[in-house]
Design a protein that fits this description.
The complex is a heterodimer of chains A (218) and B (261).
Chain A: H1 5-19, H2 21-26, H3 32-53, H4 59-81, H5 85-109, H6 117-140, H7 152-172, H8 174-179, E1 183-184, E2 187-188, H9 189-217
Antiparallel strand pairs in A: 1-2
Helix pairs in contact in A: 1-3, 1-9, 3-4, 4-5, 4-6, 5-6, 6-7, 7-9
Chain B: H1 2-90, H2 100-124, H3 127-131, H4 134-148, E1 152-158, H5 166-187, E2 191-198, E3 202-209, H6 216-221, H7 228-237, E4 241-246, E5 252-259
Parallel strand pairs in B: 1-2
Antiparallel strand pairs in B: 2-3, 3-5, 4-5
Classes of the chains: A mainly alpha (218), B alpha+beta (261).
């Protein structure tokens, strides 16, 4: 079984999330556990898919991953946005529209086997916009004694924002990079970028989970 | 070809780094905004606490001063009159016939003591002020002083009279009372003028006397001196301001400006 280096960070964050589940619940982000579970399973399968199933690529796994993880991420972001009933309804409509597009793309437009780059772009763009909104709302909230740097929501969203930025470029150019064999230090530029971005993302998640637990203990 | 690939790689990396830079900058900006907002909120709270503390201090001072005034008034006026009445009554003996002149004197003294008490109660009780405008309340106070005699008090008014918030009216009335008390007790004045100027947003009241005046700096340095601090604090308490102008031999002018709302 192959494990890429960022997957250690991913596994660590999942373990931390399970251990600190009460801390996550106290911040109403228990949904992070299924999200991390889906991330871990899909990346584990993705890293070993070609060897196990003798397939030329692992795009099938990630196409499915986007279909499953997008509603979960949207739910997480909606909670962190502390949206009121009206906003929640709007986000639900947006989420349904996005999910409908992803399903249509998966079944009818780009298909199941080729990498769904439109899906990747749309999902990362959505995550980017929502994380910006959450961060702005966190910064402009009125609670006096809240400290942004010790707020788990801040770290989760800051990392989602940066990850989405890198992903939009890397995933958008994924086909181009693969076709032209663009490499850094003998590795595909796409993999190098995505692994680094993933490592940063899951480090941020781990930090946020620990902050949840620490603040719950207080 | 390898050069072209290198160029593309560099470009992609550069674009990603620029985007990451803006992303990080955005996050830092938000953190900074949050930090500033927290700092502002903290400063505002500290100011509010300080103001509340001052307010409490001023209230205590006002209360203290009121008790002192009450004690002095009772001792100097009502007490004296009742003591005199007691002495007069103690001279009456069962064996002697009733001295009608003495009884009349006692009656007069007790009546004056009662009047003084009523007047004192009226001056202290805020209830009646609430039913009148500031102008009417001041007129009534002036009548009281005029009755006592020895002083010429005039009241002038410029502009159209406007309604002042109830608490502010009471504070302003207490300030004017304080000024009048100062004139009566310390100024040795023969004329006092109370001038009302009704502006669009605020009322200016100027209490001017032709008394002996005083050195404002020295008086401010003295603890409790002439209640100047009380006048200032009360004006601040109602969101206004006060200026006390005086020089030895030149009389005293106290100007208070208070917003209506």
């Amino acid at each position: 079984m192959t494990l890429l280096y960022f997957q250690y960070f991913q596994l660590l964050s999942l373990l931390l999330a399970i251990v600190c589940r009460k801390g996550l619940s106290s911040f109403s982000i228990g949904i992070l556990i299924p999200i991390l579970l889906v991330d871990n399973i899909s990346d584990l399968l993705g890293a070993n898919y070609t060897r196990l199933f003798h397939s030329p690529d692992n795009y099938f796994i990630f196409n499915l991953y986007y279909l499953v993880s997008t509603p979960l991420y949207l739910y997480l972001l909606t909670i962190m946005l502390k949206a009121d009933a009206r906003e929640r309804r709007r986000i639900l409509y947006v989420g349904l529209a996005i999910e409908a597009f992803l399903i249509a793309n998966y079944f009818f437009v780009q298909g199941k086997m080729p990498f769904n780059s439109f899906t990747a772009l749309l999902v990362n763009l959505t995550n980017f916009v929502f994380s910006c909104l959450v961060l702005a709302r966190l910064a402009l909230r009125k609670e006096e004694d809240s400290h942004l740097l010790i707020d788990p929501y801040f770290w989760i969203n800051a990392m989602i924002l940066l990850f989405s930025l890198v992903s939009m470029i890397a995933l958008g150019l994924q086909k181009y990079i693969a076709l032209n064999h663009i490499q850094v230090d003998g590795k595909s530029l796409y993999f190098a970028l995505m692994q680094a971005a993933n490592a940063a993302l899951y480090t941020g998640y781990s930090g946020a989970i620990l902050l949840c637990q620490m603040q719950r203990s207080k | 070809m390898p050069d072209a690939k290198e160029q593309i790689t560099t470009t992609i990396l550069a674009v990603i780094f620029v985007l990451l830079f803006f992303g990080v900058l955005f996050i830092f900006m938000l953190s900074y905004i949050h930090y500033r907002r927290r700092q502002n909120a903290r400063e505002k709270k500290a100011m509010q606490d300080q103001f509340d503390q001052q307010l409490m201090q001023t209230r205590l001072e006002i209360q203290e001063q009121t008790f002192r005034y009450l004690s002095e008034e009772i001792h100097d006026h009502v007490g004296q009159l009742l003591s005199l009445a007691k002495i007069q009554l103690s001279s009456v003996r069962d064996t002697e016939p009733v001295d009608h002149g003495l009884v009349k004197d006692v009656y007069a003294n007790v009546t004056r003591a009662l009047q003084d008490l009523r007047s004192l109660a009226k001056g202290l009780h805020a209830g009646h002020i609430r039913h009148f405008s500031i102008r009417e309340a001041v007129d009534e106070e002036v009548q009281r002083i005029r009755k006592a005699g020895g002083l010429k008090v005039s009241v002038t008014s410029e502009g159209e009279e406007k309604k002042i918030k109830e608490e502010k009216q009471l504070i302003l009335f207490r300030i004017i009372q304080e000024c009048l008390q100062n004139c009566l007790k310390h100024a040795s004045a023969s004329n006092i003028n109370i001038g009302f100027t009704w502006y669009a947003e605020q009322l200016r009241v100027r209490v001017r006397d032709d008394g002996q005046g005083f050195d404002t700096e020295k008086a401010s340095a003295l603890a409790g001196g002439l209640g100047l601090e009380n006048i200032r604090n009360r004006a601040l308490l109602s969101g206004g301001s006060s200026v006390i102008h005086s020089r030895p031999g030149e009389g005293t002018t106290v100007t208070v400006q208070i917003p209506y709302e």
